Amino acid sequence: RKEVEQDPGPFNVPEGATVAFNCTYSNSASQSFFWYRQDCRKEPKLLMSVYSSGNEDGRFTAQLNRASQYISLLIRDSKLSDSATYLCVVNKQGYGGSQGNLIFGKGTKLSVKP
Amino acid sequence: DTAVSQTPKYLVTQMGNDKSIKCEQNLGHDTMYWYKQDSKKFLKIMFSYNNKELIINETVPNRFSPKSPDKAHLNLHINSLELGDSAVYFCASSPRTGDQGRLVFGPGTRLTVL
């Protein structure tokens, strides 16, 4: 099983649609989870952290399911500007007492059409 | 005003050459990183420095040598470039080592080895 696995897509949705992405991770000791967004030929940018209790930021909702080892991202009322690749990021729990490295998924491509 | 800057943005060079990429952050962050994103879009950590000290060195050929003259700068020197080194190299920083999830990436350096 890959360390972090995502459906590469593309997800092609109309404006206003609700879309959800899942991401599975293999290391049950992972403690920190994030969603990053990467526009074409640009750098990744932190979208949101994912907390155990789930969290919401405007139209974006992130959830964590530790038992099944997956995290999800829900985008409501999609905008054209949401078109990007969404990267699932999980920390690779610790050697040397540190939080360890971040493992990036390959990303899910979202294309929002008018 | 740029938080994390890299130079050059594009680098085209012949196999066997030696090249350097420079990175600077003005965020006052303690930790800096080099990531490589290959043609398959996987983003993988190469090195991490905390206050000028190397703390993460992933399995990277020793042709790659990072150097941190101070905590605001992390440069990457690559000797004897190979075709497989073609990729986008991202510099990033975070407030501290234990806060890797909150990475701020530079715009990337697109390296093409001919």
Q: Explain this structure to me?
A:
- Chain A is an all-beta fold and 114 residues long.
- Chain A contains no helices and eleven strands.
- In chain A, the strands form two sheets. In chain A, strands 2, 4, 5, 9, 10 and 11 form a six-stranded mixed sheet that branches. A five-stranded antiparallel sheet of chain A has the order 1-3-8-7-6, with no helix packed on it.
- Chain A is globular.
- Chain B has no helices and eleven strands.
- In chain B, strands 2, 4, 5, 6, 9, 10 and 11 form a seven-stranded mixed sheet that branches. A four-stranded antiparallel sheet of chain B has the order 1-3-8-7, with no helix packed on it.
- In chain B, β4 (31-37) and β5 form a beta hairpin.
- The model of chain B has no long low-confidence stretch (mean pLDDT 91).
- The A-B interface holds A 32, 34, 42-46, 49, 85, 87, 89, 91, 96, 98-99, 101-102, 104, 106-107 and B 40-45, 48, 55-56, 58, 90, 97-98, 100-108.
Topology:
The complex is a heterodimer of chains A (114) and B (114).
Chain A: E1 4-6, E2 11-14, E3 19-25, E4 33-38, E5 44-50, E6 55-57, E7 60-65, E8 70-75, E9 84-91, E10 102-104, E11 108-113
Parallel strand pairs in A: 2-11
Antiparallel strand pairs in A: 1-3, 3-8, 4-5, 4-9, 6-7, 7-8, 9-10, 9-11
Chain B: E1 4-7, E2 10-13, E3 19-25, E4 31-37, E5 43-50, E6 53-57, E7 64-70, E8 73-78, E9 87-94, E10 104-105, E11 109-113
Parallel strand pairs in B: 2-11
Antiparallel strand pairs in B: 1-3, 3-8, 4-5, 4-9, 5-6, 7-8, 9-10, 9-11
